[in-house]
Amino acid sequence: MDIRHFRYFVTIAETGNITKAAEKLGMEQPPLSQQIRRLESSLGVSLFRRQPRGVSLTEAGLALLPHARLILDLRRQFIEDAHGLAQGKKGHLRIGLAGAVPLLPSIPFAIRQFSNIAPGVTLSLEESNTPALCEALLSYRMDITILRPPVPDQANVRVIPLLDEPTLIALPKGHPFTNLPEIHLSRLAAEPLIIFPRELGPGFFDAILAAYRDAGITPSLGQQAPQIAGTIPLVAAGLGVSIVPQSLHQLHTGGVTFHKIARPAPHAALAIGIRMGEQPPLIHHFITVLQQACKTHMELPA
Amino acid sequence: MDIRHFRYFVTIAETGNITKAAEKLGMEQPPLSQQIRRLESSLGVSLFRRQPRGVSLTEAGLALLPHARLILDLRRQFIEDAHGLAQGKKGHLRIGLAGAVPLLPSIPFAIRQFSNIAPGVTLSLEESNTPALCEALLSYRMDITILRPPVPDQANVRVIPLLDEPTLIALPKGHPFTNLPEIHLSRLAAEPLIIFPRELGPGFFDAILAAYRDAGITPSLGQQAPQIAGTIPLVAAGLGVSIVPQSLHQLHTGGVTFHKIARPAPHAALAIGIRMGEQPPLIHHFITVLQQACKTHMELPA
DNA sequence: TTGTCTCCATATATTTTATATATGGCTTAT
DNA sequence: ATAAGCCATATATAAAATATATGGAGACAA
């Protein structure tokens, strides 16, 4: 009982004539006769009545015909689904986002755009830190990530630069520098720096430290926040200042003001991370949409 | 994309290990690897990720797996249905009944009993005259008939005697003979005989005529009724008398009384009619139930 | 009725296809 | 470092479906 047999059965039932059915099936009559007989004997039922001018369905055949059609239909659907998945028109994408990435307008924009373009694709989003994202990626719990380079194992994760986000200084409300149009890092020498821990975001951490160094000072490290957005409440509490990606200015939690940084200012790099060597069409599409969105969306009002 | 491939796919997905899956499938590992690779290339999707310690489903594979399971299930159901049909446990039976047969208690009784025994079988009933039943039988519009022999083409219809039903005389209400315990046919010589036309029921017709002849008289033929039960209103209208199968006494249409016939009395023979040479289990079962019901149900109160 | 035509069944040969066997390479575990 | 597990490849074998050739039974027309 193979797919082939279902097709034979249905075609013969439709033509009522083994010879013509064979022609329709692109084969000769004897093998078709043989296969149908074999099918009937294996099922233990006669599907057709052999008549002088052709064949006609028996009661059993009539009863089973819709069932056979259904199976053929489902098989066709299966194959179509597979092709859809192959072309990235259908499927599911598990997206991992580094801290505060959803606050960056171009990312949600790109995601919305992608779901419009590929309505057959379902998405799931998860926010985490860069090392955890890499691990999830490599253990196939995620399909694509937007992270803050560098990544722990360059060998297995392919990193595609996406954009460089400017950073802002976050000051507690009422801080003396609040009125300055832009602040040079050197003026922060005396303030404890609240920062996202290096092990959770080495790229961002190092960029900030490098900027301090370029400004000729060494920051006094204050408390650490387990998430990038978590630095804001600490600043609001007066525990120090922080350097954060520009997108965080969208967090309208009272008690904190954001300020431009005079050059040299650190940048928060964002990149796409995918498994090395892989690039299914679904992921490829998504990357294209992301890059496009980041190019056209040169947004981020200060 | 064959049934086999679906099974391979599902089994590998379940074991996560091609070698073990092959064992489970009763085959060796290389052909299984080969078939899955062929399947993947024909679908254009990778179903599995080859990993050092086995294989794991890709997103596409995960998405397609339930679909494959469904198809395998439906195929199994198909085969089970076919076997059910083969054994007469499932299916449909188109039953043709000669005129007034449903009035005979043992027939509906048998039908009810059969639907209890074989709940998977659906039944359809149709009442018609014997020649029409035979034709429907031979053109496969019916599967089994209960008719009044003889039948037109003995060659193609197999007739299995079922029972001999006594007949009654139907008199218009108030007829002088109404009070007699039983009536000899000879006393009906003067009464027009309302009868079911010979072309629609030769067996019954001839049996009545033979009884008249045996009684030494010739009936004066009155109006004909297109159905056996149709004779009753004609009798009630005073157009004559009629000889009817005993079961018709159940028709409580006013204006007619039924009376025993003194011997020699005609009998209305009932028989099962099926297509010559065929006897699917479903029909065989039904015949058995019918015969049993007619034996135990030696009913028919006068 | 006879001849012819249509259509299915059977028999044999051929080809295709799947499978088994043997082996190699890669990765993980001990 | 060595062994074990697992998948891939190559070749050979076996099984299967199919094509070709032919026969037979019934239907239809003359």
Automatic annotation (TrEMBL), chains A, B:
Transmembrane segments: none annotated. Pfam families: HTH_1, LysR_substrate. InterPro entries: LysR_HTH_N, LysR_subst-bd, WH-like_DNA-bd_sf, WH_DNA-bd_sf. Residues 1-58 form the HTH lysR-type domain. One of its GO terms (cellular component) is protein-DNA complex. Keywords: DNA-binding, Transcription, Transcription regulation. SUPFAM superfamilies: Periplasmic binding protein-like II, Winged helix' DNA-binding domain. It comes from the Bacteria. GO terms for molecular function: DNA binding; DNA-binding transcription factor activity. Belongs to the LysR transcriptional regulatory family. This is LysR family transcriptional regulator. It comes from Bombella intestini.
